[in-house]
Design goal:
This protein is mainly β. The chain has eight helices and 37 strands. It has one domain (about 5-650). It is about 5% helix and about 40% strand. Strand 30 and strand 31 form a beta hairpin. The N and C termini lie far apart (about 55 Å).
């Protein structure tokens, strides 16, 4: 029996409260150093990208044919239901409205676009499918790497493929075979190119859960570091344990063994930075953000151990609403700890105070709304290579334009949905109806889930820290992007007097924008990448140019060809009280891509986002193709379980104006 391989992400978006409270005032100039652990990332082996391998078959009727990364489904699969909690809400008094960028239908832009990785690739290399597609992207002046879920592929700067899709399990040396009923979870791939060391850094999380939520469950973070500038060459594999359940010098955090969910990468002149959100593997514990600084030069040199400094921000740094010093989440106390501190990539470095890395985070702790953001600065980063690193983390909260948690699904253009029409996932079970002998019922088209209002990425360029997040709009039926450029004021005493140099909303008439990422050149010219969807648009890869004067008009990079028609659009949609979905703790969540990506390389942008690459076929062709090979249906454009895809795009600065 093959070990089940799942992807895991975004538990923060599940924690939706039901109790309202008046927000506390933001603390101006708040500065606080986080408690730290000094450890190491260890060299565990070498790897070279090799051809993809096909594993198991999706033809089975068990749930293993298609996986979502919803944590409640993970726990259900390993015999543990999840419970729900209520907690206090904070909120801004106003809501965002549409912006001046709304100027009719979005035109096709000058960006070059190709079809990136997709559900059919994942299915044919693994035998199952995963939603949502988690996007990783990095580039230099010669090469581009795209990572999505459990695959990655290499391209030249003109977006010509230089390889077939590789399998990340093989690349990271994680065996698929194990003693049942072990569960291995890996995913959330990210990557960066670092010009300072001339190396590629590819990462993912990996979790091993023995049977029945055994306390010996473990979590680790894996980093592959190229040994040259060739992304198709050899790599050194580094790992560090983030189970945080005590033993061997590790912290014993509340509710652990834990995992580091939704990892994101940043880099400055000295170190690689990783931000995660810490969740209990066997409990519903949430310990908030953990920030790791790792000696990138040691890894680039192939050292046996690279210094690592861990900052347990969620457990040690008070928020304006802080009321619990030992645990971030209690049913009657609330969610009041920091989460999702996005580390910046840095085309320009701040070398003051021994080296500085910047971060951005939102303050909508209860997933409702807020009008504050925080900028963070880690100083002393050049000491990461010392025997005793001396790093300090500071933050400052600033009043901002309001942003609102996008609680509702957003619409997509009507079109053919053969999976929905087949009724394969229409029963009250997180699996095909055939798993319980249920009757398949045709389903109506669903919506797109915007997920949350956390920052998608951060970039430090030309003296500003840039970032953007998804926000519900005033009509509560659409979403837009709230974007910011922050001028951090850092002194030897920490942060104080920082300001927001630019803030505004990016919207499209009658449509929604979701999952933004921003790439910015060293001169401060930027591009926002995202998905555009609405009654006029199938899910589409889109972008807007941005600079200190604000964002320009929404433009199309790759026009979506059909509605989203994946298994999470229908799974547990028809749940009934006391039914299997409720009993197993699985809720209806039609997942969409948890990230987009945007990178500036000199005066060139490379960016990616999820969209629907190909037209859906008729129900009759879908059923006929599925009977022959469920991994490749509708003329080889999708799998039976999913039809997501990515658009890989490029644009030169100066190829077009903002409007």
């Amino acid at each position: 029996m093959h070990r089940r391989v799942l992807l895991f992400f975004g538990v923060v978006a599940v924690l939706v409260g039901t109790v309202s409270a008046t927000p506390a005032a933001a603390s101006p100039g708040a500065t606080q150093a986080a408690d730290q652990l000094i450890a190491g990332a260890h060299l565990v082996g070498q790897s070279t990208p090799t051809s993809a391998v096909t594993y198991s078959s999706e033809s089975s009727n068990v749930a293993g044919a298609a996986f979502t990364d919803d944590p409640t489904l993970l726990r259900a699969l390993i015999d543990e239901g999840a419970t729900t909690s209520e907690f206090h809400r904070n909120g801004a008094s106003t809501q965002p409205t549409t912006s001046s960028t709304e100027q009719g239908d979005s035109p096709e832009g000058a960006a070059k676009s190709i079809k990136g990785l997709n559900a059919q690739v994942l299915a044919t290399t693994h035998g199952f499918n995963v939603e949502p597609p988690d996007q990783g992207l990095c580039a230099n002046s010669q090469r581009v790497i795209e990572m999505v879920n459990l695959n990655f592929q290499v391209y030249d700067t003109n977006l010509n493929a230089l390889s077939t899709p590789f399998v990340l399990e093989t690349f990271f040396k994680n065996p698929l075979d194990g003693s049942p009923p072990d569960v291995t979870i890996q995913g959330d791939p990210r990557c960066v190119w670092d010009a300072g060391t001339g190396r590629w850094y590819l990462s993912q999380l990996e979790i091993d859960v023995p049977a029945r939520l055994d306390p010996e469950a473990t979590s680790k973070f894996q980093i592959a570091v190229s040994t040259s500038s060739d992304p198709l060459g050899s790599y050194n594999i580094y790992e560090f344990d983030n189970t945080d359940a005590g033993g061997s010098g590790n912290p014993n955090n509340p509710g652990c063994p834990c995992l580091g969910d939704q990892p994101t990468l940043g880099v400055n002149a000295d170190a690689l930075f990783v931000d995660t959100n810490e969740f209990g593997i066997t409990t519903n514990e949430f310990n908030g953000a953990v920030v790791y600084a790792i000696d990138k030069k040691a890894m680039a040199a192939g050292a046996t151990t690279a210094n690592l400094v861990a900052n347990f921000v969620g457990l040690t740094v008070p928020t304006p609403e802080w009321n619990n010093t030992t645990n971030c989440l209690k049913p009657q106390e609330g969610l009041f700890c920091w989460a999702s501190l996005r580390p910046a990539t840095s085309p320009t470095n701040d070398t003051r105070f021994g080296g500085v890395e910047y971060f951005l985070s939102a303050l909508d702790f209860a997933n409702v709304k807020d009008d504050r953001i925080a900028v963070w600065a880690m100083t002393g980063t050049s000491s990461i290579s010392n025997t005793s690193p001396n790093l300090h983390l500071f933050h400052e909260v600033m009043g901002s334009e309001p942003y609102v948690f996008p609680a509702n699904l957003v619409s997509q253009k009507a079109g053919p949905i053969p999976l929905g029409q087949s009724g394969r996932y229409s029963c009250d079970v997180p699996a095909p109806c055939s798993a319980i002998g249920g009757t398949q019922t045709p389903q109506a088209e669903g919506g797109i889930q915007p997920n949350d209002d956390q920052f998608g990425s951060a970039v430090f360029a030309n003296g500003l820290v840039w970032g953007g997040l998804t926000t519900a709009l005033g009509d509560d039926e659409r979403t837009g992007i709230a974007y910011f450029a922050v001028k951090a004021r850092l002194t030897s005493s920490g942060l104080g007097g920082s300001s927001i140099a630019l803030q505004n909303y990016l919207t499209a008439p009658g449509s929604s924008l979701v999952y933004p990422s921003i790439g910015v050149t060293s001169e401060g010219r930027g591009l926002i990448s995202f998905t555009l969807t609405g009654r006029k648009y199938f899910p589409t890869s889109a972008y807007a140019l941005v600079d200190r004067g604000g964002a320009g008009k929404v433009k199309i990079a790759a026009l979506g060809q059909s509605p989203q028609d994946g298994f999470t659009e229908y799974e547990c949609r028809n749940a009934v009280k006391g039914g299997l979905c409720q009993t197993l703790g699985v809720t209806y969540r039609p997942r969409w891509g948890d990230y987009s990506a945007a990178v500036a390389v000199g005066n060139h942008f490379v960016f990616a986002s999820e969209y629907i690459q190909s037209p859906n076929c008729s129900l009759s062709q879908f059923l006929a193709d599925s009977a022959v090979n469920p991994l490749s249906v509708c003329g080889g454009t999708r799998s039976r379980a999913a039809n997501w895809g990515t658009a890989l795009n490029s644009l030169n600065v100066g190829d077009e104006g903002k409007d």
